[in-house]
Design a protein that fits this description.
By secondary structure, this protein is an alpha/beta fold. It is built from 14 helices and 10 strands.
Length: about 325
């Protein structure tokens, strides 16, 4: 099946959800328990299959390329959550899977890929290096490439998060979504702006990986030479080329959070909300907790993943 040449429509998102529905775990909206956060509901994608939202897009991409994926195998590049999602989806569908991951990456995420039968190839740090290696292997070996975010079919699968929010809480006024490469944010934006045009869509990223904030400020897609944050899932150097026009058109605001604010968010999620959330997934809650967004309107914070490194968890418990 040929790849789409334009961003997915609302109908495309609905079709994607219908396709992946049987394997998907629709996540609930949970009221925040921490004092002062009464207007906030949490969308815990840390409870999704493989521990993150990434399973939605990975499964959709593989189902759309299933014959070729089964015949030739698939390859992905990932800091961890996307790799686990692709490996899990490949195992479910009977495909061989290779994942290019960073040297010195989160060991627990590497273990997750292996547990789903995936093969790991290590690349130097930096999202661009992983991407280049995966593309070279795909071309040389005829593998089906499953990008982590810069892909319309991935975007459509991730958009099921936005569909679930709109259907569960039509009165929501603002939605906070983490942004790394922008697949989740773009898909969620398409869904929410189509179904709830008045909703305020706020992207959240670490101050040490603020490529999207800088991109919106300059009006052009910015690529950072390096990033520095404990939120390993958001260590992209730029948002995806396909995602950027969607994000530029539909996102209302982007805020950044410091490393201390992220740590405080992970701690509060653990102790107050009883949820284990990794730094990348906690940035939205951290932004709300730190007062960077409106506190008195019905809000949803997407918690994008829960695959936390043991070393970071020790810091949280510290």
């Amino acid at each position: 099946m040929s790849e789409p040449q334009a961003p997915p429509s609302l109908r495309d998102l609905e079709s994607a959800r219908d396709l992946i529905r049987t394997e998907l775990l629709p996540t609930p909206l949970l009221p925040a328990r921490a004092a002062g956060l009464g207007a906030l509901l949490l969308k815990p994608e840390n409870l999704q299959r493989t521990g993150s939202f990434k399973f939605r897009g990975a499964l959709h991409k593989l189902l759309r390329s299933l014959d070729a994926a089964r015949e030739h195998g698939v390859i992905a590049y990932s800091s961890g959550n996307h790799g686990q999602a692709v490996a899990c989806a490949a195992q479910l569908l009977g495909c061989r899977c290779t994942v290019v991951m960073p040297e010195g990456g989160v060991r627990e995420k590497q273990e997750g890929v292996l547990s789903y039968g995936g093969e790991i190839v290590l690349a130097p740090e930096g999202s661009d290096a992983r991407k280049a290696m995966a593309e070279q292997r795909a071309a040389a070996e005829g593998l089906v490439l499953v990008p982590p975010y810069d892909d319309y079919e991935i975007m459509a699968g991730q958009g099921s998060v936005g569909l679930e929010i709109a259907e569960a809480l039509p009165g929501v006024r603002q939605v906070l979504v983490p942004v790394g490469g922008g697949g989740l944010l773009a898909g969620t934006a398409i869904a929410l702006k189509a179904l709830l045009p008045a909703v305020r869509l706020i992207a959240v990223e670490p101050a040490g990986a603020s490529d999207f904030w800088q991109s919106l400020r300059s009006g052009e897609r910015v690529s950072l030479p390096r990033v520095d944050t404990a939120a390993d899932g958001l260590r992209t150097q730029s948002v995806g080329e396909r995602n950027w026009p969607v994000l530029k058109a539909l996102v209302d605001e982007v805020v950044t959070v410091s490393e201390d604010e992220i740590l405080a968010g992970v701690r509060s999620l653990l102790w107050r909300e009883k949820l284990v959330v990794e730094p990348s997934g906690a940035v939205t809650y951290a932004a709300f907790l730190a007062g960077h967004v409106a506190q008195d309107v019905p809000s949803v914070a997407v918690l994008s993943g829960g695959n936390i490194a043991r070393t970071y968890l020790q810091q949280v418990l510290g």
